[in-house]
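Review form for a predicted model. The reviewer records the input and the model, then writes brief findings.
Reviewer: anonymous (R2)
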Amino acid sequence: MFKKPAIDKHHFNLIFPNIFDFKGGIQVYSIFLLKALQDVYPEAKYDVFLKYDKDNLKQQPNVQFLTSTRFHYFGDLPRLLQTILFATKIIVLAIFQRPTIVISTHVNYAVACYVLKLLTGIPYWVVAHGLEVWDIEDNATKLALQKADKIISVSNYTRQRLLEDKNIDSDKIVLLPNTFDASQFKINPKPNYLLKRYNLTDEQPVILTVTRMGRMAQYKGYDQILYALVKIRFHIPDVRFILAGKGDDLPRINALVSSLNLQDCVTIAGFVPDEELCAHYNLCDVFALPSKGEGFGIVYLEALACGKPVLAGNQDGSIDPLAEGKLGCLVDPDNVEEIAYNLIQILQGDCSNPLVYQPEYLQQRTIDAFDFSQFRTSLAKLVGGY
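Model under review:
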């Protein structure tokens, strides 16, 4: 049982984009952050501001939070009014309540936090994930980030990108990596129901990608895998690529599959619910996401916890979950030939990193470094000074 530190009663104001109606990296991180705080400080008060969520908590039976948690929803409002009321309520409520600390999991809300600090002196933290903080153009947002009492970086890569801005005090930037619930991801044989669903044999080599497929997310690298498949299937004729996820880029992806004549070896699986995620990882022989815009990449942790070889890009936060390549294969995300070569090597059992074929080792190293219990302990140390 986690032992909480002896402290006076805390009051946390947490600012999230959303956590109920969309599941992305920032949303997952936000939920884990809230759960960890409530484990450490069960007697504290919590006000959670959700810009895009509607009042649908009752529709989330699997999400449990302390009764002292108050959610403030703004998703039903028109966009301009939404932004104004969202920021106003954050500031006004905090002036009256005087929370111990304000934590925003998206840099876009840092300006409201900075205004609040100018008015009241209440400290604030900002979580820095990836693209949204690497190249900030808005001067007000940049200033609010610089004035934060702490900047929580989810990866070493993002921390280094932040340090390139000489106006940010390096002592303010602390590392609190993404986490996952290791109990949900196990090493198992390929599930029969998915073999039947996708018309696969147990011996058939499967490449899996689970990601968001939006028009603004083409940096994820699924195009490069499709181009690489043209070469891969010459060496491994029965290979199957399962691309799972949802987004507004699907029509273009389907057109690309057709133009490359890959219809017989590509399956667009659509959105995979949480209860089927582990089974999909166990279905594959390699998980591939050669992205160049990841702040971290929780999917890598999930795949590694299922004991799977992982291929990722070497130019972003993907480096962290793969322990700089020790736990997987890092490639140039723009080099289709390199992607194809390494996927062929992995599937044929010839990967230059033999550790990718040791599932129990991959799982244990990932759990030791990134399980939720580690995240909670690290967060407790960070908050302990307040």
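Findings: The chain has two domains: 11-179+371-383, 182-369.
Further findings: The mean pLDDT is 93.
Recommendation: see findings above.
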